[in-house]
Amino acid sequence: MKTALRIILVPVIFVLSILTLFLEFIFNSIFLRLLSLLIMIGAIACFVEGMVLLGWIALFVSFLLSPYGLPMASAAILEFVKRLKDNLESV
Questions:
Q1: In the chain, domain spans
Q2: DSSP characters over the chain
Q3: Could you read off the pLDDT of 8-20 as tens digits, one per residue?
Q4: With 80 as the cut, is the pLDDT of residue 74 above it?
Q5: Do 16 and 83 touch, CB atoms closer than 8 A?
């Protein structure tokens, strides 16, 4: 019975492994930090030009792309997925 369950869970474990690698690559890259910097510069330009609402929106998007925004949330999700994969492998 335990062997049959392991055979059934192999595709799930494989998908979780691929998802983990993909999330680590995307959210730990320098690309998000550079994009955040460019958006922040654009937000400052919006404030200088008098487009305050657009500047605040750009600052919010810049925060989401910064190391404390989405990457921090993805780290928590990534840890959950890793634990789930480890628990499924131990079955």
A1: 2-89
A2: -HHHHHHHHHHHHHHHHHHHHHHHHHHTSHHHHHHHHHHHHHHHHHHHHT-HHHHHHHHHHHHHHSTTSHHHHHHHHHHHHHHHHHHHHT-
A3: 888 888 888 888 8
A4: no
A5: no
pLDDT at 5: 79
Give the separation between CA 41 and CA 89, rounded to whole angstroms. Answer: 46
- The model's pTM is 0.57
What's the half-sphere exposure (Cβ side, CA atoms, 13 Å) at 81? Answer: 19
- CB contact at 8 A, 46 and 76: no
Question: CA angle, corner 90, sides to 89 and 91, nearest 5?
Answer: 90
